[in-house]
Design a protein that fits this description.
transmembrane helix, 9 strands, Phosphorylase Kinase, domain 1, alpha+beta, two-stranded antiparallel ribbon, glycoprotein, Transferase(Phosphotransferase), domain 1, globular, nucleotide-binding, disordered C terminus
Length: 317
């Protein structure tokens, strides 16, 4: 199927992804799981959880292979790869790594619809718990599709809370309550937090934000709040029209609402869609995000590193 793993598309914590071709001519993405990672839970999660879904903004699992310890997952092929490669990198000038403001806006509306479907549209609620640009794939029309359900959890539609033995996700996107239960319980609002951090990362990357000397340890959402919200619109640089200015401001405001520290203060994904599709003038300024220290010390058994280091870590910082 993969012609002896000839073309590698990418790699993750649980295995590598290769381009393949089915007998009927369709191209596919083949994720070959590393047998030395995990106890098989990620494979079961992918097969069981994603097979429950059917949505334009969720990647389609076409099948799987299982032979002894050898495990592989077969997905629809996404020609434009992951959203991660479209984050602006200093020194990158490739035209195909550029997304316009309107295009970026439609991508994030699509991701929000996909998450809203996972949270409310399935018979069993699915919490993804690893939302980040690497796990958002783009088809040939740049329609976003949520992928990689290896860390996902199921819960009933009436039960908002899930139990976990330890933190899961990617540093920089993980909600505070995943590390420390004193911030709240792990729920669908944990995905909302990750979504908000992803929006702010893409905004920061697109504007090629460089933090001032001496501010490198500043919590990134604090910095973006001060510099991109509490400023006059005329100070927003690099925008060519009023419409683009409104898109940027709307995405910043939505992102900051999504990363509120208390889960109860974050909007649901249904509300996020309303905010994104509504008027920017109707959006209230969110409270300043504040996460300089935990409410109480984080037990070593919960966090994998000190909370101070986590709180200031941001993917583009």
């Amino acid at each position: 199927m993969t012609n002896s793993y000839k073309e590698k598309l990418g790699q993750g914590g649980y295995g590598d992804v290769y381009k393949g071709k089915l007998p009927d001519g369709r191209f596919v993405a083949v994720k070959v799981l590393n047998p030395s990672k995990g106890n098989g839970e990620e494979f079961i999660n992918e097969v069981v959880n994603i097979s429950r879904t059917s949505h334009v903004n969720v990647v389609t699992l076409l099948g799987f292979c299982l032979e002894g310890e050898k495990r592989a997952l077969i997905y629809e092929f996404m020609p434009n790869g992951s959203l991660e490669k479209f984050i602006f990198k200093e020194g990158t000038s490739e035209d195909n790594h550029h997304l316009g403001w309107e295009q970026l806006y439609h991508i994030f509306v699509g991701i929000a619809r996909g998450l809203e479907y996972l949270h409310r549209g399935c018979n069993t609620r699915i919490l993804h718990l690893d939302i980040k640009p690497h796990n958002i794939l783009l088809d040939k029309e740049f329609c976003p599709k949520i992928s990689d359900f290896g860390l996902s959890k199921l819960c009933t539609r009436t039960d908002n809370i899930v139990s976990m033995m330890g933190p899961r996700g990617t540093i920089g996107y993980i909600a505070p309550e995943v590390f420390n239960r004193s911030f709240g319980v792990v729920s669908h609002k944990s995905d909302v937090y990750s979504y908000g951090m992803m929006i702010l990362e893409m905004i920061g990357g697109k504007k090629s934000i460089q933090m001032e000397v001496g501010a490198s340890s500043e919590y990134f959402p604090d910095w973006i709040y001060k510099h991109l919200v509490l400023v006059d619109e005329n100070e927003l640089q690099g925008l060519r029209s009023k419409a683009e200015t409104n898109i940027e401001k709307k995405m910043i405001l939505v992102g900051l609402w999504c990363i509120q520290i208390k889960p109860s203060d974050r909007p649901s994904m249904n509300k996020v869609i309303e905010m994104l599709e509504g008027s920017v003038e109707a959006l209230p300024i969110p409270p300043k995000p504040f996460l300089s220290s935990p409410l109480r010390p984080v037990p070593d058994s919960v966090a994998t590193s000190s909370y101070d280091s986590v709180s200031i870590t941001f993917p583009t910082g």
